[in-house]
Amino acid sequence: MERSIELEQGLVTGWCDPALESVLNAFVNNFNARGELGAGLAIYRQGTCLVDLVGGFSDKERQNPWQKDTVCVVHSCTKAATALCLHHLIDQGDVQLNDPVARFWPEYGQSGKRSTTLAMLLNHTSGIPALRAPLPEQAFLDWPYMTRVIAEAAPFWEPGTQHGYQMTTFGWLIGEVVRRVSGQSLGQYFKTHLAEPLGADFWIGLPEEEHHRVAKLARYRPQKGLASAAFTRRLMADPEGIPALAYFNTGKFRADAAASYSAEFGAGGGIGSAQSLARLYGPLANGGCSGGQQLLSERQVSLMADTSIKGGEDRTLIMPTHFSLGFMKSMDNFERPGGAMESLVLGSSAFGHAGAGGSLGFADPGLGLSLGYVMNQMGPGILVNERGQSLVDAVYAEMGQTRSVLGDYRDESAKI
Predict the structure, then answer these.
(1) Residue-number span of the structural domain to which 403 is assigned
(2) Is there a contact between 183 and 243 (Cβ–Cβ < 8 Å)?
(3) pLDDT for 113-170, tens place per residue?
(4) 153-172 burial string, b = 16+ CB within 10 Å, else e?
(5) Judging by DSSP bridges, how do beta strands 271-272 and 72-73 pair with one another?
(6) Total structural domains in the chain?
(7) Residue 240, Cβ density class (10 Å: 0-12 exposed, 13-18 middle, ≥19 buried)
(8) Residue 415 falls inside a structural domain
């Protein structure tokens, strides 16, 4: 039902299926008790919109209410959109998963990378989670420069033998293959083959005329007494290590700048709404089908959902990580010191991606469900934080599922 709920500051408006009242309550509680500034939440199940909510403000001064057409930088949620472009090419038969990268990008074959396959780019085993050479200012805005530096770089390990989250390099690694094979830039390919067919207001490279719709990000301020993640501890202790290189060696990139909005930064510069994330994951929750059209084959969607990397310390994130080919799987690290900062608990069949600060999108094929959550108040955590996880928890509770000892949600019963 259409709702309008007054907050202490601002409103929450939109649609919520009565059967998901607890999800609405969790969304409102994020504003009342968890410091949410502005946010959107959308949930689809088998093509039907169950939740479409927005609330709060799109600016730190709390002068501009979050609108239905407000979009936001979603950081690493972008990686899912980028991965989808390569999966689409695989599905069309243009490339194969185990093809060497150098077949399409010959320069990449130097410095010990000749054996790297497309699968290794997708599952973070390429050995290029970061770059050793200091990047000049504005480097992230220069696609030819970044792809040249990456092609020349030596891997941190033999490709395929270890895994380390490609925090910033993922977009150029995948995107340059997309460009070489298709003749279109990453952003153009995504727009033509995925965003437009799905009616998703999601961009990798936002046109200047759309910049006025972007919510401004509010910086996270660390909370006293909150246990830090192992990534954060390593970041500060070892300035030459992979975590520090991945996080700090960015050419002073600013996510919340007009030039960054326009850049096709495929690892973390995507801009979209909660609705767009939910629409993007819709076909992935329903065998590749959207609106009666088969956008992707069932086989390709199954490949996206299958776990490729399970456990073992991630060389970048310094924690056990679970990845499929381009997507995150459920990662329950709550038992570790600082584990609340290292976790994302989803359904056993679900796959998706979190973004810095707390944004999230995922598909759960077992439930035919897709979800998108975006926000502009940056929060703690390497994956999601309590705001996003509380929404996920409420959804699975309504579906009759509970957390299992295996670190995910599962149960055969469902309420709706």
Answers:
(1) 2-410
(2) no
(3) 999 999 999 999 999 999 999 999 999 999 999 999 999 999 999 999 999 999 999 9
(4) bebbbebbebbbbbbbbbbb
(5) antiparallel
(6) 1
(7) exposed
(8) no
